[in-house]
Design goal:
UDP-glucose 4-epimerase, single chain, UDP-galactose 4-epimerase, domain 1, Epimerase_deHydtase, alpha/beta
């Protein structure tokens, strides 16, 4: 039996694929390669080049490969851009999830791990976000991820009396960084790590947007979590679903304390050996002072822990980024 990874040619999905293979769980990938890279998929892993919006293709893939569960990573992941492209965001993230659930039901597949986001919380009014913290998404992206969680919940209720009730969990996380494979890198044009790496390689000075936040050093604080740790949690969740073990509807994959942008910049200079003083710019509208989540529940059930220091996260990402050429 195998597990289908949607978006498995992307940065996070490709790490999930490798973690599945290492755990002896056969991965299969479906990806339209709109932001993923075929080269990220190992040569011995089946890659279906197509869209999750293609209902017949998804069902055919599930049946052909004897899939027992789906790890749904595919989606339009740019929160800022989603404000300008709400219809596209909802099509990819909401309709895409609905199509996958419909194809799963038709093919008799009843396990799904959903890659959600800490964006479902918006700007929380607590220092440490937990699973039941109020959901107030501040972008179409965050809204679409919350709706995705609702879709899983509702399909679970609708099928609970059937012979194949949907078993599901949603994993929420924020800034995914680093690399566990020097050939797989974050190619996003919007994420902090690749933006800083590109600036340093091109001789430009990295930027910080705002140093007047209500934080110890004035720059905003976020969870930064290593992609390898994220991938491992997805695989453990998939195992629990396969084995019929108890699982929560959602988990926060958080660091518990967070890192500031200045701390990240200091680590960048230390690890790369390139000394720089970041350019200071005005804060961006809507950027909260601090968003940090507790990972206690995931630590209990999903072997979640922060296995990498900030320097290790930077070093692994820097190596992969330079290898990308």
């Amino acid at each position: 039996m195998s597990w289908l990874v949607t978006g498995g040619a992307g940065y996070i999905g490709a790490h999930v694929v490798r973690a599945l293979a290492e755990a002896g769980m056969t991965p299969v990938v479906i990806d339209d390669l709109s932001s993923g890279h075929a080269s990220f998929v190992p040569g011995d892993v089946a890659l279906v080049d197509g869209s999750i919006l293609d209902r017949e293709l998804v069902e055919h893939t599930l049946r052909t490969h004897g899939v027992e569960g789906v790890i749904h990573v595919a989606g339009f992941k740019y929160a800022g851009v989603s404000v300008q492209r709400p219809l596209h965001t909802y099509e990819q993230n909401v309709e895409g999830t609905r199509v996958i659930l419909e194809a799963m039901e038709a093919a008799g597949v009843s396990n799904i791990v959903f890659s959600s986001s800490a964006a479902v919380f918006g700007t929380p009014d607590v220092d440490l976000v937990v699973e039941d913290t109020a959901k107030r998404p501040a972008s179409p992206y965050g809204e679409s991820k919350l709706i995705g969680e609702w879709l899983l919940r509702d399909q679970g209720v609708a099928t609970e009396a059937s012979d194949r009730p949907l078993r599901h969990t949603s994993l929420r996380y924020f800034n995914v960084v680093g690399s566990s494979d020097p050939t797989v890198y974050d190619s996003s044009p919007h994420n902090l790590f690749p933006l800083v790496f590109s600036a340093l390689l091109e001789g430009r000075t990295p930027r910080i947007f705002g140093d007047d936040y209500d934080t110890p050093d004035g720059t905003n604080v976020r969870d930064y979590v290593h992609v390898g740790d994220i991938a491992h949690a997805h695989v453990v969740a998939a195992k629990r679903l396969s084995l019929g073990e108890p699982i929560e509807p959602a988990y926060n994959l958080g660091s518990g304390d967070g890192l500031s942008v200045k701390q990240i910049m200091d680590a960048m200079a230390r690890v790369t050996g390139i000394e720089f003083v970041p350019e200071m710019h005005q804060r961006r509208p809507g950027d909260p002072d601090r968003i940090v989540a507790s990972g206690e529940l995931a630590a209990r059930d999903l072997e979640w822990t922060m296995r990498h220091t900030v320097d290790e996260m930077v070093a692994s990402g820097w190596t992969a980024h330079r290898n990308a050429g």
